[in-house]
Fold this sequence. Notes:
Radius of gyration: 17 Å
Shape: globular
Largest sheet: 8 strands, antiparallel
Structural class: alpha+beta
Oligomer: single chain
Strand content: 35-45%
Amino acid sequence: MAILRRKKTESADEIAAETEAHEGAGPVSPRAAGPWDVTERDTDDPAYVDLGALRVRGRAGMEIRLQSDGPEDRIGAALVVTEDAAMELRAFAGPRSPGQWEVVRDDLVAEVERLEGECVQSDGPFGPELHVRIPVTLDDGQPGVQPSRIVGVDGPRWMLRATLLGRAALEPSDDGVLIDTLRDVVVVRGPEAMAAREPLLLTPPESAVAPGADVD
């Protein structure tokens, strides 16, 4: 697992302001202010951490941890961690036509029901999102609940899924730094033929450092 830290950069507010709909324009796409496809942003921007299929823009006080999946230790997710919240990022190949998040959303609702949890769909800054509460057993053996907020974004032949935990899940109206980070994400799907919903795997960056160190 790699842990990275980046120095402070600008937020996505300026980008969002540039993409506001002008008078007489049609509806604004949920992706109008990001996240972005690699064809839409400069991937050589030194503010970004290169994780292969994802580019994540660093901020002060934020850590990025890579998570391995399965026995082959394939890296399928990046966990963005702040002092009181976290956001798991996963990217998947998508069909040429948008709409994969709608299908995945239905599957997630079914899985929450199987786990006897609660799931509410709400309109968020990226369109429909899920607010989930899953029953868990706490460290002291007592029953508890794990809240999360799941956001999905359809892009050109990809889908990005973000699961927010901690304060970001408990206070979904507070977009904060993690939503800014999500808007800044750049997805690099690649030209390869891939089945819909196939994971886009991540790779450790060349600038990976030991925990506690900064990346200039």
